[in-house]
Design brief:
- This protein is an alpha+beta fold and 300 residues long.
- Helix content is 46%, strand content 23%.
- It has helices at residues 61-66, 72-81, 96-104, 111-122, 128-135, 149-166, 170-184, 189-193, 195-211, 215-233, 260-269, 283-292; strands at 5-13, 17-18, 22-23, 27-34, 39-47, 50-56, 82-83, 85-86, 89-90, 138-139, 238-245, 249-256, 273-280.
Length: 300
Amino acid sequence: MKRYFIESAKCGVTKGGFGCGPIPGNVIATVQFNDGETTQWLTLAEVQGMPNFVLADKDIHEAMLKEDFDDDEYVDYMQDHFIGEFEGIEFGEDYATTFECIASDPENPAAPLIRYLITLTRCGMDEVEELIQLASGKYADEIDIPQSDVEQEFLEEYEEDGDSVEDCDKESLYRMRLSLETDIATDSIFHEMDSEAFDAEKTKLEAIKERCEDEEDFETWKNGYLTSEYEKVKGEKFLVCRYLFAGIGQYEAILPAEQKESFICWIDRNGSAFYGGEREATEAEIKKYLALHADTGLSE
């Protein structure tokens, strides 16, 4: 198994600036590591709370602290070396994406390296030197890494979501999973409007899937459930309603025909939303509607 040896670590803050008010500096933390074959530099630059990861073949820590965006060579190098994942661990616009990946693959050998870099970035400046000494000259997997505040926050939410499904019977568990999986896979304005709630959905789904031990059994149940529920509504009319949110995107909503007027009223109340017409839903789309609402009636 690959191991990551931390040769050195650094952490600093850029000078910041002044826009419509004082702009705080960005925290820049860098780990020089060796994976048994090559030495590289992994840097986390936190810009207004958003993590940005850079994987470089040379030490660019001081250049990143300087932030000379008039230097075309520096800008080109940075653009070429920003990364969206490392050894299967994904990076998003917040830390939740990263911790979700680590939670789903805790044995990933890169996890301790990423956790350490995030802790170094998020710690108080009076803790930096201690954390650097803690890791320098050691393998990442042999360090007792303190949890950062963002990791603690994620774990608290993760455990709460796990507890919420701990006592569920199989039927309820499967219905929640079907609803969440379908919603997460469906483009929705609500995902754009509340990214934190969307991330919480993903976290809850991971907790539920951990309790679903037999994937074949779940797929068999899902097919039977949707066939049975479809038979109950077979004579009813369903519509696929198209709508647009200016500057965000176009979406579709599947709903019973009698809910159309209420849906249009909701669109009309949103100044940036526009109704784009409707068509009759197919059998597959009606089953998707039933899947989205599979958890209806379950106690929270």
